[in-house]
Amino acid sequence: MKRHLRMTLPSMLAAAAFLTAASTAYADIKIGSILAVTGPASFLGDPEKKTLEMYVDQINAAGGVNGQKIKLTVYDSGGNPNKAKTFATRLIEQDQVDAVIGDSTTGATLAIMPVFEDAGVPLISLAGAIQVIQPVRKWVFKTPHTDTMACEKIFEDLKKHNQTKIALISGTGGFGKSMSAECHKVAGQYGIQIVHEESYGPNDNDMTPQLTNIKNAAGVQAVVNPGFGQGPAIVTRNYRQLGIKVPLYESHGVASKQYIKLAGDAANGVRLPAAALLVADKLPASDPQKKVVEGYKTTYEKKTGQEVSTFGGHAYDALMILVDAMKRAGSADKAKVRDEIEKTKGFVGTGGVVNMSAKDHLGLDLTAFRMLEIKNGDWTLAN
Question: Looking at the chain, which terminus has fewer C-beta neighbours within 10 angstroms, N or C?
Answer without folding.
Answer: N
